[in-house]
Write a structure and sequence with these properties.
- The chain is an alpha/beta fold.
- It folds into 3 domains: 145 residues, Resolvase, N-terminal catalytic domain (Rossmann fold, 3-Layer(aba) Sandwich); 92 residues, Hect, E3 ligase catalytic domain fold; 149 residues, no CATH class.
- Helix content is 43%, strand content 13%.
- It has 17 helices and 18 strands.
- The strands form 7 sheets. Strands 3-1-5-6 form a 4-stranded parallel β-sheet, with helices on both faces. It has a 3-stranded mixed β-sheet with strand order 11-17-18. Strands 12-13-16 form a 3-stranded antiparallel β-sheet.
- Strand 14 and strand 15 form a beta hairpin.
- Helix 12 crosses helix 13.
- The chain is globular.
- The termini are far apart.
């Protein structure tokens, strides 16, 4: 590793672990750090000061702005990094030494303004290691003090989390049941009686509207039903107080709600040809089989409307017979003409295997990160690890399905007639990237004007999936079709504008 010498292009890095309300000798503001770095560089070096890294822990080297600096060093756009003080770089000896070695391997330099670190000599390198040892010692002392403080707070019944669960108010740092507590108790009672999460989410929208104006989702409901705070518990990491405040539900009711399962439809009703394939164009999420009509005797595919990422702005619903018949006819035409082959499916398998390798490595790295577990606490760390494990499982299942997939383009119509529903669904899944349905708005709209079949290799590659950060809800980008409709335009608006007589009486 070279010393920061004249004429170098250096990146100034500024970090504050926690900003809120801090002051005093132990708090070195971002401006003070940046000014000291500028004064040190003077006219000797070309200096780039990055935006300060605020509210970022020193227990990990994986920080967004710090990663940008490393990327610049690796690419040769920067000759090294300058910090105000060694502990702004890291307080973990192992992480710091490995990162310094990485910088050295890339030909980069390192300088600490306040510590006057000179890495060109053995004494300077030894001094830096001593600084890092003391920095880690200071961090460990802070962590031990925090653990002691949280243990005592939990023992007193303090609710440490920033957010207050529904049904409670925070009074003197402890939770007190409020006017919404009976609704929370009824939530558990309804679940114990077998009511499903989707129905409970709709009920909560009326019983306890969310203060931010958003809707309750099944995921929110499932989370509420596992929160032991409603039993009167306070906890943080491994620290737990089972008698911290007045409970809202009894242990028997809590356990009954946890054991309950919404009644599942008979197996025959769960064999749907387009399950896992058909999606709502308004939000791109999978549609679910349901029943509609006055007597609930019409089988349909319907958008759930409420998703973890938000509400669908144009939820679609379509008769199963109509959409399945249309998709099958189009698929048979494709199979007869041999227009779609398995090469795209093979490319998707390669992409899925690459994603599997990435999420598996991310899971294993996080599982071995002792600092992350210490900083987050046992409960949040386990939840984060569980999410990474689910991403691995999803990728494994997707890869397994692609490995065993039939080459859809080689299927002839005679084989299709001999297939059962599950086998036909597999063929359609291999033929397409998805089937998208637009809302009709109550009009008699031809199925071909509502349904877009995205044949393999033509659909979006970022569709919402379990275990993926799906971002905000957004509509599918439809290609222009024979009806002249474009992206974001639903069938009802287009056809009503061109032919008002199509409106239902």
């Amino acid at each position: 590793m070279m010393m920061a010498s004249a004429g170098l292009r250096l990146d100034g890095y500024v970090r504050v672990s926690k900003v809120g309300g801090r002051s005093g000798e132990g708090f070195i503001s971002p401006d003070v750090q940046a000014d000291a770095i500028r004064q040190w560089a003077g006219d000797r070096h070309v200096l780039t000061i990055h935006e300060p890294e605020l509210d970022r822990s020193d227990g990990t080297m994986n920080r967004p702005i710090f990663n940008q600096v490393l990327d610049r060093i690796r690419s040769g756009d920067s000759d090294g990094i300058v910090v105000y003080k060694v502990d702004r770089f890291a307080r973990s000896l192992l992480h710091a030494l490995s990162t310094l070695q990485e910088i050295a391997d890339a030909g980069g330099s390192f300088a600490s303004v306040s510590d006057n670190v000179d890495l060109t000599t053995a004494q300077g390198r030894a001094f830096l290691q001593m600084q890092l040892v003391f920095a880690q010692l200071f961090r460990d002392q802070i962590r031990e003090g925090f653990a002691t403080a949280t243990s005592r707070a939990v023992a007193r019944g303090v609710h440490i989390a920033n957010s207050v669960p529904p049904g409670f108010d925070r009074v003197d740092q402890r939770l007190v049941p409020n006017a919404d507590a009976p609704a929370i108790r009824e939530l558990f009672e309804r679940r114990a009686a077998g009511q499903g999460a989707s129905a409970l989410a709709r009920w909560l929208d009326t019983a306890i509207p969310r203060p931010n104006g958003e809707v309750w989702t099944p995921a929110h409901v499932s989370r509420l039903l596992t929160m032991r705070v409603f039993l009167g518990e306070a906890h943080y990491g491994e620290h737990r107080n089972t008698n911290a405040h007045e409970p809202i539900v009894t242990a028997d009711l809590f356990d009954a709600a946890g054991r309950a399962r919404a009644p599942a439809p008979p197996r025959s009703e769960r064999t749907h040809l387009l399950a896992g394939i058909v999606r709502c164009a308004g939000c791109r999420y999978l549609m679910t089989p349901a029943k509609s009509g006055r007597n609930h005797d019409t089988l349909v595919y319907r958008c759930r409307e409420r998703h973890t990422a938000g509400r669908c702005p144009a939820p679609a619903s379509i008769t199963r017979r109509l959409v399945e018949g249309y998709v099958v006819r189009q698929a048979q035409n494709v199979m007869a003409g041999g227009e779609v082959r398995g090469s795209a499916a093979s490319a998707e398998l390669e992409s899925t295997l690459a994603r599997l390798a990435v999420v598996t490595a991310a899971r294993d790295e996080f599982a071995a990160d002792i600092d992350a577990r210490s900083i987050l606490g046992d409960g949040p760390w386990r939840a984060a690890l569980r999410a990474r494990a689910e991403a691995v499982t999803d990728a494994e299942l997707e890869a397994e399905a692609l490995r065993g997939a039939n080459v859809a383009g080689s299927i002839d119509l005679g084989e299709w007639e001999d297939f059962d529903t599950a086998e036909r669904r597999q063929v359609l899944a291999n033929l397409t990237d998805g089937v998208f349905v637009r809302r009709s708005g109550g009009l008699r709209v031809p199925v071909e004007s509502r349904v877009w079949i995205a044949w393999r290799g033509t659909g979006p590659d970022d569709l919402p999936r379990r275990g993926r950060a799906n971002g905000p809800v957004r509509a599918v980008d439809y290609p222009p079709d024979q009806a002249g409709m474009t992206a974001g335009q639903d069938a009802s608006n287009s056809l009503q504008a061109s032919d008002p007589s199509r409106r239902r009486a």
